[in-house]
Amino acid sequence: MASFDELAKDWIGGLSTYEPGRPIEEVARELGFDSAADIIKLASNENSLGPSPLAVEAIREGAEAMHRYPDGGAFYLKKALASKLGVRPQEILPGNGSNELIEFIGHTFLGPGVNVVVADTAFVVYRLIAAMFRADVVAVPMRELTHDLDAMLAAITPETRVVFVSNPNNPTGTMVGQEEIDRFMEGVPGHVVVCFDEAYIELLPPGDQPDVLKYVRQGRNVIVLRTFSKAYGLAGLRVGYAIAPEEGIALLNRVRQPFNLNSMAQLAALAALGDDEHVAVTRDLVQDGLSFFVGECFRMGLEYVPSVTSFILVKVGEGRRVFESLQKAGVIVRPMDGYGLPEYVRITVGTADENQRAIAALSEAV
Length: 366
Ligand SMILES: *Cc1c(COP(=O)(O)O)cnc(C)c1O
What we know:
Layout: H1 4-7, H2 24-31, E1 40-41, H3 53-62, H4 75-85, E2 92-95, H5 98-109, E3 115-119, H6 125-132, E4 136-140, H7 149-155, E5 160-166, H8 178-187, E6 193-197, H9 213-217, E7 222-227, E8 240-243, H10 246-254, H11 263-273, H12 276-300, E9 311-315, H13 319-328, E10 331-332, E11 334-335, E12 344-348, H14 352-365
Parallel strand pairs: 1-10, 3-4, 3-5, 5-6, 6-7
Antiparallel strand pairs: 2-8, 7-8, 9-12, 11-12
The structure holds pyridoxal-5'-phosphate.
């Protein structure tokens, strides 16, 4: 009998898997805490305020109808997003998290012989998806842990199909501004799709949010990704969306499973989209928490990467050891050795109480 390994396509066994954080119940038990409530999780850039209450209510009301298949076209969600963003519903495609849309981009544009251009310390999923479709990765060094769009432009080859720009970027928390984006877009050749991943955009003060939707409206080869996982607090439901010219959306739509977005997720996203107050309160909490972290890093003499969004990279020396020591104190952060930044940990901004506890533990650990 042939082994599974022999039967599988030969590059599958060589793919690396994304390592998600462990369930906090598990961590709590292992470390001897009474319950998961004693642990604070500042590891995955989730919304520490929780979901919009309107989203929770919408699921409660909609739960009775879960024997029905969802609306495979996500009609109401697309319509609401289109009107909020000033585009047409045909220019939007919801996905099972924006990560699913990155995979659709892979299905649609990537294969052997083509490459993707990414920044070397950008969101790791772009590389994982490129590998899954056997495309090459051109990793461009960042400048001060910020996307260097001039260098990325220069790195484009005739084989390049997609350039990914995570803005603001995870895990560095840095952002490129309108001027750099516009200069980059002026130079991008016609054979390349530019994907702007704006997972954290709603957490910026509205005046600071760069406008890349104008390129969608101009019909450029641009795909903008957004998500309900961060500012809207719906990470567990898995809802993201792409905004692109109609022709691009029609292609991505062809590689989609008919019911990729479950009905609870559609109801909750629709409700959350109308809850501007929840987003505004979240944004204030994030900005206050960032200022607190920055002040405390300064006080402790710790270097950090100036962040515009809901997490911050702090230079702690041995990141892995500090991660473990924080975990023993019930504070879960993210070590960064996997990103080639072994001296750093990434800390998500939490509630004021959580931030205090995190800093107290950090100050013990370093
Ligand atoms: C969190 C995050 C996402 C969101 O992914 P979902 O699949 O929508 O939860 C996307 N891109 C980046 C860079 C992120 O940090």
